Amino acid sequence: MNWRSIWYDSKNGCLRSGWRVLAFLTMAMSFTVLLSALFSMLLSAFSPMSLDYDKPPGQFYGILIERLAMIPALIAAGVWALKVFERLPARALGIVPEGAWLRQLLLGIAAGLLLIGAVLGLLRASGMAVIHWQGTGKEMLLMLGEAALFMLLVGLAEELLVHGYLFQTLLRGIGPLFTLLLTSLLFACLHLFNPDRTLLSMTNIFLVGVLFGLLYLRSGSLWLPIGLHAGWNFAQVLFHVPVSGMGISFSTPFLTELTGQRLVTGGAFGPEGGIVVSAVLLGMITLVVYGRFGLPLDSRWWEWRGLARAPEMPQNWDFSVDSRYYQWKLLGHDQSE
User: φ, ψ for residue 263 (rounded to 5)?
Assistant: First the structure.
């Protein structure tokens, strides 16, 4: 046995994907701990009150600090790993604000709002949910604005963690099928300790992970799944239903009572714990897989062969000039690039 082959891929001239993931996670966790400590010190210094991170509002600020620290840490660790291990530029991470990034983000947010609205509309039409209009006020709108920003940060942080460098380097190592399975399991595990979880709710969270991963593959960037993630969560806040088991502690324009069977409505976990969401997610996954839009799933554009700097000794794929150009063109870039 060649022990070197356990950790080094001589064909591609770099560490194997599992070791690259381990190095990335170590770097990302180190950055996150340092930034969290820094942000906590700054908040404590400028906060007019003493915060207990085990109780609200300190609990909220604790989660906010964690997400704010994760985002730059995951970007920095991802860019570092791309450059050191795979000879790829920062834009390959899929988070650079270029091209149609804003359109993709807004499209994802709108889709999330519509999907949750459709789920609750179906439950209401079947008599399994009652939706009350509570009106709006200045304070309520301010809280909604804060919730929208918070959910955007949550979507950004979680997508960078699950579908950023980790997802992308596994794609290049073990292919899309196993990558989708592994990262969707990771996404479900992130919600494993949420209140009122059930086997069905964890299955739905797994399916959400599959959907987000497929959207990255079809769009070529993280902005579409980030938008859908944020819009999906914010819609549940807007209609005042639990978000993955987490209750809403402030008034919103709508108040929804889930009155049907828990298997259908999700009960205390929220709509994500019911079979209506299961059906919606399976339908969306089918649409993304078979729909005629975006980047072809069989194009393997995510190998970024047109961007990678060739190693000293040419590999087999270095001679695939046409396919490299094709993959680069798929993302709308010019031949001059």
Answer: -60, -30
Whole-number pLDDT of residue 12: 64
Q: Average pLDDT of 178-192?
A: 96
- Asked whether the beta carbons of 208 and 233 are under 8 A apart, the reply is no
pLDDT over threshold 50, residue 319: no
Contact at 8 Å (CB) between 176 and 210?
no
Nearest to residue 83, comparing CAs of 14, 30, 22, 35? Answer: 14
d(CA 223, CA 182): 21
What backbone torsions phi and psi does residue 9 show, to the nearest 5 degrees?
-95, 100
Domain spans, the chain: 9-87, 97-304
What's the rounded Cα separation, in Å, for the pair 307 and 94? 13
State how far the Cα of 219 lies from the Cα of 328, in Å rounded to an integer.
13
pLDDT tens digits along 215-255: 999 999 999 999 999 999 999 999 999 999 998 988 999 99
Q: How many CB atoms lie within 10 A of CB 193?
A: 8
Q: How far is CA 74 from CA 12, 71, 102, 160, 242, in A?
A: 24, 5, 21, 6, 28
Element (H, E) at 254: strand 254-258
pTM for the model: 0.86
Instruction: Tell the burial category of 269 from Cβ atoms under 10 Å away from its Cβ (0-12, 13-18, 19+).
Output: buried
